[in-house]
C-alpha cells in the first residue's frame, strides 16, 4: 500500500523545513541541563519537609527506597530553601517554551512505523513515550500547584514526587541513548550552515528531516530565538517573587508577585489567611487562648501574657514557600524554641518538636521539626514581626519561625507544642 501523505505516520505529512537533528539536539542539550537541575532541586525540596522525621510531614508514606537520600535539613544559610525552591519553580516555568519546542521537534517520531526496528529502537520509543507523558504531567501539575493552589485530582505531593521519578528515569534512559549523537550533531554544525535548512540524505532515513519540506520562511536559528525570547519573558515575569525588593513588581505571572500586600509591619506575603484556615476571633482572644507545652515535666498551659514575660529574642528571617515565592527578611521577636524545650524538662540538647495549630481547614495543620531546628537560637515562637504584634493572617497570637524551613513548617496560630522523640 502506498504511503499516504495525509496520515501522520507518513514522512511526507511533516513538511516543516525547520525540523532536523540540529534543532532537536540543541533543545535536548538545554533540557539535559535544565531538567537535571529541576530534579535535584525538587528532591532537595522534598528533603526540606523532613518526611523521615514524622508521618505528619510525610506526604508520600509509601516512597520506600526512593527516600534513600533524605537527610536532616540544615538551618544555615537562612536563605537555603528560598534559593533551592525559588530555582526549582522559576526554572520550571522558564523551561516550558523549551519543552514545548522540543516536543514539536520530535513529534514525527511518535508516529514512526514500524514501532520498533531493533531492541535499541524499541527502548528509544518507550523512553520517548514516558518522557513526553512524564514531562507534560510534571510541568502541568507543577504549574497548577503554583498558579491555582492546585486543582489536579489527587494529592499534589505523591503525584508530583512519583511522577518525577518516572519522568527522570525515562529522561536518563533517553539521554543515554541520544546525548552522544546530539553533542556530535551540534559540534558538526558550523556557524555558516546554522542558518540553512538541513537536506535529507541517505544517512538521514528515519530522522526528523522532512523529505519534501515546504519553502523556509525563517532561518534555522529563528525558532531558537523565539524559544529563547519566550523563556526570557517567563523568567522576567516570574523570578521577582523569589528575589523580592523592586524585582517583585516584575513578577506579573507569579501569584505572590507584584507589590507587597497591604502596608505596615505585617504588609508582606501570606499563603493562608485566618479566614481560609477557619480561625475566629474567639479562638485567638487573649483571655481564651492558651499555649500547651508538653514534655518530660508534663503539660504546662501558658497565656500570651505569661509567654511575653519570658526572655524575648529577635531574628531576621525570610519565609519561603513551596510555590516558589518568598519574602524579604522580616524581623521576628518571641521566645526561643529551645527555651520552651527547657521549660518542658529538656535542659540539655532539645529533642524533636511536634507543633499543632488552631487551623481547621487546609493542609499542614500539624508539623514536625527536627532537634537541630529546635536548637537553633533563631528558631522562635514569635509574637511580633517588624516591631508590631502579629496580624491574624500572619498567625496571631503566636507562630513558629525557623531559619531555612519551608513556609508550611512555620506553623501559624500555634496551640500546642509537644517536645520529645517523634
UniProtKB/TrEMBL annotation:
Keywords: Membrane, Transmembrane, Transmembrane helix. Residues 284-419 form the Oxidoreductase molybdopterin-binding domain. The keyword Nuclease does not apply. Residues 192-207 have a biased composition (Low complexity). Residues 191-219 are annotated as: Disordered. The chain crosses the membrane at residues 21-49, 89-107, 128-148, 160-179. It holds the Pfam family Oxidored_molyb. PANTHER family: BLL0505 PROTEIN, PROTEIN-METHIONINE-SULFOXIDE REDUCTASE. This is Membrane protein.
